[in-house]
């Protein structure tokens, strides 16, 4: 099974009603040991940083065309806790509303995340802190660029992501 490292980041540019974007970098070695990378990013308006973090993971997992052993590297404890503490599963089953910024409509996003994760063996590594960490800096730049170039539309569904 191929090993893949997925570096992700999200940016809402400090404002849930401002531009938001996700950045993701897939890194893997082919059969000859050559390192390959694939960058993914997209921007949306009127969304939150947590949603962007989840979109980065979704984009990366959906871009894989076969089952892989994936390590997700994120500076978001939200992303890690979503899986290790079963937040997503609980929200889907019970339709919880967790504060005014996380309405029930997020359930579709969480369902999509679980579906994207299904064929892979996924583990998570949390990078404490945000900007400046060498393992996450590139994704931060991608996320910020995506946020800056976000279309002036409401967040819906990113479609293909690949």
Task: Tag the structure with descriptive keywords.
162 residues; alpha/beta; 5-stranded mixed β-sheet; globular
Task: Provide structural commentary.
The chain is an alpha/beta fold. Helix content is 33%, strand content 27%. It contains five helices and five strands, in the order E-E-E-H-E-H-H-H-E-H. The protein has helices spanning 49-62, 77-84, 87-94, 106-117, 137-148, and strands at residues 3-11, 19-29, 35-45, 69-74, 121-126. Strands 3-2-1-4-5 form a five-stranded mixed sheet. A hairpin with a 5-residue loop joins strand 2 and strand 3. Helix 1 (49-62) packs parallel to helix 4 (106-117) and helix 3 crosses helix 4. The longest helix is centred in the middle third of the chain and has 14 residues, at 49-62.
Major beta sheet, strand line-up: 3-2-1-4-5
The residue fraction in helices comes out at: 25-40%
Give Rg in angstroms: 15 Å
Q: Spans of 5+ residues with little confidence (pLDDT < 50)?
A: 153-162
- Overall, the morphology is globular
Number of strands: 5
Largest sheet: 5 strands, mixed
Order of helices and strands: EEEHEHHHEH
Note the gap between the termini: 21 Å
Average pLDDT rating: 78
Strand content: 25-35%
* Secondary structural class: alpha/beta
Specify the number of helices: 5
